[in-house]
């Protein structure tokens, strides 16, 4: 079954052009499924039944896996067996009846505006690294782009004259504006920081690591953790925290959800609604604290 899984992952990459994160997650989930089924003596795709897959789901629940993890595993199995049916590897789809567990939508963690500013003030030195870190944090908070988009930005993706950044998505490009403060930080970094970080002058990466190579997600995760601790912020900060904060602060100041949706790259405005709910929750907290009859 491992061979079919590998061919399926290659199919996702070549034909469906799915994201790297999806491919890695699906491969990991399907290999875990394969291991479970192999221990039950089931080694062929065509031999798997709906009962077998349901047993695997129950196994994940007993392991204490989160509903979101189980839901992703079910999505991976559904996609895999749908592919197997289409390719005539299997005559029936044993994953068809699987249902994902209900997942409660968590309110995203966001920084207050004061905390966000405090975080952005932390890289205040003139070393190439600090100039880079300052520019990256400013750009992340100014645009709300994903960390994967940030670390893969190329020089040509940043338009300093018109103050916008371009993120290249699968079917179209996404253009997000930024302001003067972010522009100035990027200009300072480009002039006095980046030339000392890159090893090859032909490098296109806007924000390389200290070895002049492409920065990893883990590398930037460590950067934001470091400055969060330095700023004295108690909340657990991740790169996504700044993305959430960007959106929440825009909505707080009257930005319409449709515009925020486009900047974030959400396919459905319903996903962006959470920031409106967050704003309403905040208003209620303010009301209860301030109103004499609250």
Structure report:
The chain has a 3-stranded antiparallel β-sheet with strand order 1-2-3, with no helix packed on it. The model has no long low-confidence stretch (mean pLDDT 87). The longest helix has 22 residues, at 269-290. With 294 residues, it is mainly alpha-helical. It folds into 2 domains: 2-86, DNA polymerase, domain 1 (Orthogonal Bundle); 113-289, Orthogonal Bundle (hpI Integrase, Chain A). The chain starts with a helix and ends with a helix. 59% of the residues lie in helices and 4% in strands.
Short recap of the structure:
By secondary structure, the protein is mostly helical. Helices cover 59% and strands 4% of the residues.
CATH topology tier name of the largest domain: hpI Integrase, Chain A
The mean pLDDT is: 87
Radius of gyration (CA) equals 23 Å
Q: What is the count of β-strands?
A: 3
Helix and strand topology:
Elements lengths: L1 H15 L3 H20 L10 H13 L4 H20 L26 H8 L7 H16 L3 H5 L6 E2 L4 E5 L4 E5 L2 H13 L1 H4 L19 H14 L8 H14 L4 H8 L4 H22 L4
Helix pairs in contact: 1-2, 2-4, 3-4, 6-8, 6-11, 11-13, 12-13
What descriptors fit this protein?
single chain; 294 residues; mainly alpha; DNA polymerase, domain 1; hpI Integrase, Chain A; 2 domains; three-stranded antiparallel beta sheet; 13 helices; 3 strands
């Amino acid at each position: 079954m491992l061979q079919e899984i590998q061919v399926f992952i290659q199919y996702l990459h070549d034909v469906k052009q799915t994201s790297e994160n999806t491919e890695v997650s699906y491969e990991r989930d399907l290999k875990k499924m394969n291991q479970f089924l192999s221990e039950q003596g089931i080694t062929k795709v065509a031999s798997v039944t709906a009962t077998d897959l349901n047993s695997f789901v129950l196994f994940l629940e007993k392991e204490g896996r989160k509903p979101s993890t189980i839901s992703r595993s079910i999505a991976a199995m559904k996609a895999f067996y749908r592919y197997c049916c289409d390719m005539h590897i299997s005559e029936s789809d044993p994953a068809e009846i699987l249902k994902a567990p209900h997942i409660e939508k968590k309110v995203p963690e966001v920084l207050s505006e004061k905390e966000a500013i405090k975080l952005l003030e932390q890289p205040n030195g003139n070393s190439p690294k600090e100039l880079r870190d300052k520019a990256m944090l400013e750009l992340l908070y100014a645009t709300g782009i994903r960390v994967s988009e940030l670390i893969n930005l190329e020089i040509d993706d940043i338009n300093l004259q018109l103050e916008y950044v371009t993120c290249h998505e699968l079917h179209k490009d996404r253009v997000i504006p930024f302001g003067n403060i972010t522009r100035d930080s990027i200009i300072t970094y480009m002039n006095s920081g980046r030339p000392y970080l890159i090893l090859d002058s032909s490098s296109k990466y806007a924000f390389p690591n200290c070895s002049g190579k492409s920065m990893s997600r883990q590398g930037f995760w460590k950067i934001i953790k470091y400055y969060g601790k330095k700023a004295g912020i108690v909340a657990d900060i991740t790169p996504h925290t700044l993305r959430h904060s960007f959106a929440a602060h825009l909505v707080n100041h009257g930005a319409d959800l449709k515009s925020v949706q486009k900047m974030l790259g959400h396919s459905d405005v319903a996903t962006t609604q959470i920031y409106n709910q967050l704003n309403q929750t905040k208003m209620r907290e303010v009301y209860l604290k301030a109103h004499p009859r609250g």
